[in-house]
Amino acid sequence: MSNRLRALAFGLVGATAMAGPVFAVDLEITCRCVIGGVNSGTAQWIEESVIPAFVAANPGVNVKLNQFGGEDAQLTQQLALDFSTGAGPDVSAFDGFLIPSFVEGGLLKSLDEVAGPEVNDWTGWANLSDGSKALMLYQDKFYGIPLGTDVRMIYTRKDILAEAGVENADTWQPTSWNDILDAARKVKALKPDSFPIQLNAGVAMGEATTMQGYWLALLGTGEAVKDADGKWIVSSPGILDTLNLYKTIYVDEKLGDARAQLLADGRNRSFANFRDGVTALLLEGDYFYRSVTPEGSEFAVADRDNVMGWAKIPAQEPGKGIRGQDFVTISGGTGFVLNPATDAPKEAWALLSFMNEPAQLEAFQAIQPRITARTDVAIPNSPFLTETSQTLLPLTTARPNDPDYNAVSAEIQRMTESVVSGELSPEEAMAQYKASVTKIVGEENTVSL
């Protein structure tokens, strides 16, 4: 039963028992989060803080959290199906990079189009950083409110690097790709059955391949996926160098776990490899620190504060990175959007804005500190997140805000998989990528360098 029909039914019942009708509205909120499982802190925050406080402040509104435990891509597929049929949750967690393709596909509407002009009067907009705003902005309209942003780095097992004889293992900072490979080779020589380095690849890991793998190498060559004129780069020295790096790691020297890149649960396997000391160098986002490795989680690293470190991701060579940088990183971000077909747009907006007020975000920070979207909400008691965000955010870049990005990203994942699996050479994989992306965006929107 829709919220409006349910409200009418409640009103009729109330009219027979009381002097006036009593209206009730039921809201549903969905995120990829499960208490005790994936993104447990998010689920705990919504269940234990957001819902009780919102319901107490809004009598007659009921809120239910749908805990989704599948992969990111599965939630995206479900939301696309739901939004296309007028079904689904009223409020949903959403990765900002998906907004352009959903908008162009008619699956998402701007917040003010769904809930009305009062959206633009929300005082919280003034306290969002420009970078955070951009995460949920498309064609100058907000389609959601960002929850936070992130940065990417190399996580290290300091204990293993030290055992392998890597100099300054506690503060190890590579300045080139060769420095990374040399450290991995030392670990491999010490532990022949290990897979010292993890650079995400393959289709199964989805956007984690593109963001935690391909981008981090490509930016180190000085290139991005688009050129300065906004054309998709489909053939270039940077792409070839990136693919050859994958080939070195997974095919030629077997420094990485090639099979893990091809498995449905490959990302979890990469987490387990790091936890168990099979992998000593793992390129990931700050999500890995705050959600994957804490004490009590499935992939918790024993004695984490002593054995686990981090390093900036170096360019291929000093000064060769994007914008001439010595080190590179990339940031994404998630937030929450409104279902364009919600039966209760005003109430859904009230919930969305309520959960992004400082009081609720501070409650979330108490459960799981993270880099916030709001400038007036600090990271509490987390020297790691404070240090990494302050160091890496000035170096960061972002994915292009383009409706074709999701489809191009899928081709990037296929390209890396074909190299890691040994199916194609880097040159062959790049040629296939060029053909596929040209078909998606049109030859006039591509360039070869």
TrEMBL record:
Keywords: Periplasm, Signal, Sugar transport, Transport
Intracellular or extracellular location(s): Periplasm
Species in which this protein is naturally found: Devosia limi DSM 17137
Family, per entry: Belongs to the bacterial solute-binding protein 1 family.
Gene3D superfamilies: Periplasmic binding protein-like II
Protein name in the entry: ABC transporter substrate-binding protein
Signal sequence annotation: 1-24
Any GO CC annotation of this UniProt entry: periplasmic space
Spans through the membrane: none
InterPro entries from the UniProt entry: Bact_solute-bd_prot1, SBP
Origin organism lineage: Bacteria, Pseudomonadati, Pseudomonadota, Alphaproteobacteria, Hyphomicrobiales
